[in-house]
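Quick one before lunch.
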Amino acid sequence: MSVFVSPPELRKLCGHNSIVGEPDEKAASNLGYCIFENHYKAELVDEIRRGAEALEGEASSKFLSLTHLRKAHKRIPAIEVLMHDPQRLAFLSDVAGCELEPYPITTAAAHINYYRREKSTIDFHTDGCAFVELIPLTITGDPPDSATLIYNGSIQGGLNAARRAELFNSDDVERIVQQVGMSVLLQGRRVLHSADIQNDSERVTLVLPLRSKNEPWKDDNTLFRLLQDDAAEDVVDEWVKDVAERQYPAFRRMQASQTS
Ligand SMILES: O=C(O)CCC(=O)C(=O)O
Ligand SMILES: [Fe+2]
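Model of the fe (ii) ion complex:
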C-alpha cells in the first residue's frame, strides 16, 4: 500500500456502518462494513487479476450456489503477498476495531468469486470466518453495476424473508456498490449478505478472510460447514489443530482473565 489513511479520517471519506440493533456478544467488533479506497499496488493487483482469469475453468460451485476458486493464494503467489502485508493488516485492524490476522485454514483462506451473467451470484448467508475483505478485480457491464447486499436486520429475520424470496427488493437491504480500486471490509459472520449484478454486469472478486487474533473462537467454520466445499483430507487435520491449539486455548485464557 502506498497511502495510509487513519481510520477516523477514513470514516469521513467512506461508507462505514456498525452492526445495528442490540449489542452483539458473538461479534468480534461492532463493525458492520466499511468501504474504502485500497491503494494496493497496481502491479500486484494486475498479477492477481491475470491469475484469476486464467484459473476460472478450475472454479467450482457447491455451497451457497457460489462459483469460486478456493485456496487461491496457493495458485497465485501475489495473493499470498497481499494477505500477509503488515501495513494492510494494521490498517484493516484499525478499521475493524480489533487486531486481525489472515484466516489460518488453507482451503478457506483466500478465494476468487466469479459472478457471471445468467448465473446465480451467492445466496444470502453469513460467513464462516469473522471478517472478509472483498477486493473487486474486474467489473464489466453497460454501465457496470454490481453490489454487495447487506440486510439491515436480524440474521434469522432476513433468512426467513429470503426463503420467501422477499429479500432482494426489500427496503431493509442496503446496496454497497462495488468499484475496482475500492475494498469492502465486512463482518460477514454477523451480517446477512449476498451479491447482486445488474445491467448484464459481471464481477470477479478476490475474497480475503480474516479473524480476530485475540478472539479466534469467534468463528462459524464448523468442520461440517467446510466439508460442504472441501474434501476431508484437505481440511480435517488443519481444522482440528486450529480449534485445539488456537481457538480453545484463547477462549480459556479469556475465561481465566474474567474470573481472576
Ligand atoms: O462479492 C460479494 O459481494 C460478497 C461475497 C461473499 O459474501 C463471500 O464470498 O462470502
Ligand atoms: Fe459472504
